[in-house]
Write a structure and sequence with these properties.
By secondary structure, the protein is an alpha/beta fold. It has 9 helices and 14 strands. The strands form 4 sheets. The protein has a 6-stranded mixed sheet, sandwiched between helices. A 4-stranded antiparallel sheet has the order 12-13-11-14, covered by helices on one side. It has a two-stranded parallel sheet with strand order 1-10. Strand 12 and strand 13 form a beta hairpin. The protein is elongated. It holds the Pfam family FLAD1_M.
Length: about 260
């Protein structure tokens, strides 16, 4: 199916690469940004993994994910240092060699001038058969091969690269999200009504997210689905059964509220 067409469910996974994420030294924000961005194209982020800077670990995770999902987006490990081994791992996973892409070499030469040192030349390596992903922020581009997009780990640069990923995706039906807020009732009270509605609407996702604070307690019930009419009907149904169960403070809240 060509890019831009809408079909059945389209799925993606994110592979976050880097010891600094696993150690807690760096807090990842890319997963959130990728999920939100993919959602605008009707692509469901179905799984995320974090792996260390170990080629064998990256290859194993990548091969598992790219077989299971329509797309895989990796972040991190494409810089100039010795531990930036993502390109090596991607090439190994696809069974191809790396080569120095002439367009990347030209871009870096134009920016830095003179002879490129070995560290900078590392960032020009692309697997044979791969295409470039534009980098509108700074530094060399990312690349794509098969159903895998390889992006930078620096959040600002990663978000810029994403803009070149979206138009290449096979899109799906955009998921609609609605939230019902229940105040002053515990999850033990709302569990049965919520389960009943969830069973009656298997095509939808219903989740309960409790909150506690000085202003009170309760749960935000998030309903997600692709059929606008079913989503609207399910919201009304859920609010009705919650009130029948004795919940007195039930209301739908605006997104982001």
């Amino acid at each position: 199916m060509a890019s831009g067409e809408t079909g059945d469910r389209v799925t993606a996974a994110v592979l976050i690469i880097g010891d600094e994420i696993l150690s807690g030294r760096t807090q990842d924000t890319n997963l959130r940004d990728i999920s939100r961005y993919l959602g605008t194209f009707g692509v469901d982020l179905a799984e995320a993994r974090v792996v260390p800077d170990v080629i064998e670990e990256i290859v194993a995770a990548l091969n598992a994910l790219r077989e299971r999902y329509d797309y895989v987006i990796t972040t991190g490990g494409i810089g100039p240092t010795h531990d930036d081994i993502t390109a090596d791992a991607i090439a190994a996973a696809f069974g191809v060699e790396l080569y120095e892409h002439p367009d990347i070499l030209a871009l870096m030469t134009a920016r830095w001038g003179g002879e490129l040192n070995a560290a900078r030349r590392r960032m020009a390596r692309v697997p044979v058969g791969g295409d470039l992903v534009k980098n509108p922020v700074q530094g060399p581009p990312g690349f794509t091969i098969g159903n895998v997009f390889v992006l930078a780990g620096v959040p600002q640069i990663m978000r810029g690269m994403l803009e070149d990923v979206g138009p290449r995706l096979r899109t799906g039906a955009v998921t609609i999200s609605r939230t019902v807020r229940v105040e002053g009732s515990t999850e033990g009270v709302i569990a049965a009504p919520l389960e009943g509605v969830a069973r009656a609407h298997p095509a939808m996702s219903l989740g309960s997210y409790p909150f506690f604070g000085p202003d009170g307690y309760g749960s935000n019930l998030v309903l997600r689905g692709r059929d606008p009419e079913e989503v609207a009907a399910t919201v009304a149904e859920l609010m009705a059964v919650l009130k029948d169960a004795g919940c007195t403070n039930v209301k739908e809240v605006e997104p982001g509220a």
